[in-house]
Amino acid sequence: MLEDLPRPLIERLLAVALERGGEHAELFHEQRLTHALRLQEGRIHEAGVNVTRGVGIRVRVGDQQGYGYSDDLSEASLERAARVAGKIARSGSGVRAVSVNERPVASVYVNGAWGDTVAMARRVELLTRADAAARRADPRIRAVNGSLVDEVQNVLIATSDGLLVRDRRPLVSLTVQVVTERNGERTHGYYGDGGRRGFEFYDRVTPESIASEAARIALVNLEAVEAPAGEMPVVVGPGGGGVLLHEAVGHGLEADFNRQGVSLYSGRVGERVASDLVTIYDDGNLTGERGSIAMDDEGTPGQHKVLVERGILRGYMQDALNAELMHTHSTGSGRRQSFRHLPQPRMTNTYMPAGELQPDEVIRGVQRGFYAKSFSGGQVEISKGDFVFMVGEGYLIEDGRLTAPVKGATLIGNGPQIMTRVRAVGSDLKLASGSYTCGKGGQLVPVGVGLPTLLIASMTVGGSRVR
Question: Which of 63, 74, 354, 453 has CB atoms 3.0–4.6 Å from 359's, for a disulfide?
Fold first, then answer.
């Protein structure tokens, strides 16, 4: 559990932070215990335990922020951090009294054996089971790499408005990478799963099932043909296909980019930005999902946000600073990597709800095209919405059915543009929250993504074979 700062000390630190006349002060106290194990060549190759512990103090003045932090929790060090943060203000008014009162927070996590209560032998067992299962899958498997990372993060947030809240957040992820080889050619398969849960999750989603899926992807890619190239209809698969939505659209709906006018969605609330088949949610309240948060890192409860509704832009993901400057309310989207970082507006679990068509109906509607089942990486330019994604597992669509697997494919396009080209949405929404981590402004936070099967009328597929 979090080692408490005494309430009188919290109140004094907030008052000290405001002694030069700041408008708002916030204290973020964090203690995080992380275990990380990596399996390679049939044995545990690395094992580590990390403790993150410290306090960050922020002062806001208009659109400016002052920030100080310390991993030394002595009163003198914390007061220095508070004064550093307060230097953003210029007109001192002296220390004023601050009083905080604790408020309850509703949990969105799955209770059980969280990482700070689990023996190391349990972690080793899960990885060795995954390794054995992957190696049994096929004699062409040459290597298996496994990773198990779990943490418990305890936070306390207090503000000069009188708020005091606490949250205790679990997180676990088991991932497996499989390498296959045939005639000197090597392919890879990668799969993981987890969330804000206890280790009981792996009694249901077993390490054997995770390893088998990684092996299946690697073996499929071993049989793959060269990817086609050119403009064609593209069907994006459920679950992990949501990465496309996250990167190509989600970042453009974060408030800071829109307040600064650098997003293509800036100033367009109430306008049509996508096909009327497109609805996009960001939801911090989904129980057990990787991106879920009972409260954000400013103390605002996690929320269900309607970003796009039937093609109409309804709003942005807001943290406290941008919400104030845009004359609206925080949506519980203020997130930070640790006490050393300022919060930013970030996604939690971003997804598109299910449609009405069966997945095979969506595919049958395509005479010749491409099916992107999952992605293995990519990049997007926020100001333009342009993206490039590497396909981890893909197939040709011929005469309305999936045929040959392909390798070396990329999807190239513009996020806002492809959202206007959505022609069919499947009924098979799946959240794929197992191991996704989002980077922004030098900070990493866990997120979830989700998508039903989705037909995009036309998209550029990059490959080495012209169809």
Answer: 453
Closest CA to 345 of 324, 325, 314, 316: 316
Q: Does one domain contain both 232 and 194?
A: no
Instruction: Quote the mean pLDDT of the chain.
Output: 93
Full residue range of the structural domain in which residue 44 is found? 7-102
| Kind and range of the H or E run holding 76 | helix 75-86
Where is the domain boundary, 222, 246, 265? 222
Q: Is the confidence at residue 435, as pLDDT, over 70?
A: yes
* 162 located within any domain: no
pLDDT computed for residue 1 by the predictor: 54
Q: Which region, left, alpha or beta, applies to residue 327 given φ > 0 means left and ψ of -120 to 50 means alpha?
A: left
- Residue range 326-355: mean pLDDT, rounded: 97
d(CA 250, CA 273): 13
| Interatomic CA distance for residues 402 and 400, integer angstroms | 7
User: How many Cα atoms occupy the beta-carbon half-sphere of 307 within 13 Å?
Assistant: 31
Whether residues 136 and 232 share a domain: the answer is no
Q: Are residues 412 and 389 in the same domain?
A: yes
CB 25 within 8 A of CB 57: yes
Cα(417)–Cα(385) distance, integer angstroms: 9
Count of structural domains within the chain: 3
pTM given for the model: 0.94
Rounded Cα distance, 82 and 59, in Å: 8
CA–CA distance, 419 with 117 (Å, rounded to integer): 45
> Which residue type does 18 have?
L
The answer to whether position 165 is within a domain reads: no
Kind of pairing between the strands at 368-381 and 437-440: unpaired
pLDDT tens-digit readout, 46-65: 999 999 999 999 999 999 99
CATH number of the structural domain spanning residue 40: 3.30.2290.10
Maximum pairwise Cα distance, the chain:
76
Tokens of 106: 């509703």
* Burial annotation 151-190 (CB, 10 A radius, 16+ → b, else e): bbbbbbbbbbeebbbbbbbbbbbbbbbbbbeeeeeebbbb
Q: How big is the chain by its Cα radius of gyration, in Å? A: 24
